[in-house]
Amino acid sequence: MLQFVLASASPARRQLLQSIGINPLVYQSNFDESSVAIADHHELVQTLARCKAEVVANQLAAPALVLGCDSVLVLQGKIYGKPKDPADAIARWQSMRGQSGELLTGHTLIDLYQNKTLVRLEITQVDFAWISDRQIAAYVATGEPLNCAGAFALDGRGGLFVDRIVGCPSNVIGLSLPLLRKMLTALGYSPADCW
Q1: Mean of the per-residue pLDDT values of the chain
Q2: Angle, nearest 10°, between helix axes 86-96 and 133-141?
Q3: Which residues are the active-site ones?
Q4: Residues carrying an active site annotation
Q5: Which domain CATH number covers 74?
Q6: What is the pTM assigned to this prediction?
């Protein structure tokens, strides 16, 4: 069995991996995302994912597969990561409701067994429901949107306020499982090698 390391403290990403039989070692990269200033949304999430994975990979003493991810919501050309505070989350939801956005997740898989690195991007369209200010306030009061890129969790209460997903649902949660399978295959592995 290959050692699999998740370079993220995200419980949602860990749970997605566990749901497919991968029990990762979890290392938080503590990479300072503010040190990266890239205007292109696609390049930004891929660079952040790579940096997070590299920080963790450089700390490991033994070979492993190291997965780093970074997600942002792009709405009307603007990037939204995690909200700063409840007021920010409320303001975001007031601008997001009834709109469509793109959830971008950069994925980096570093193979320390073969000294190879793959960097990929998954984009999923998210159509948000029109919800009232009262619903927004109640949702934000749960605290859930404060820990999520785009201020919503598809796999939580936030799923109530998403009308449609076009593309990969697991990508919206933080990790595209089909893309991970393709990346493992490109490196010559099967997901079962990580079970």
Answers
A1: 96
A2: 140
A3: 70 (proton acceptor)
A4: 70
A5: 3.90.950.10
A6: 0.95
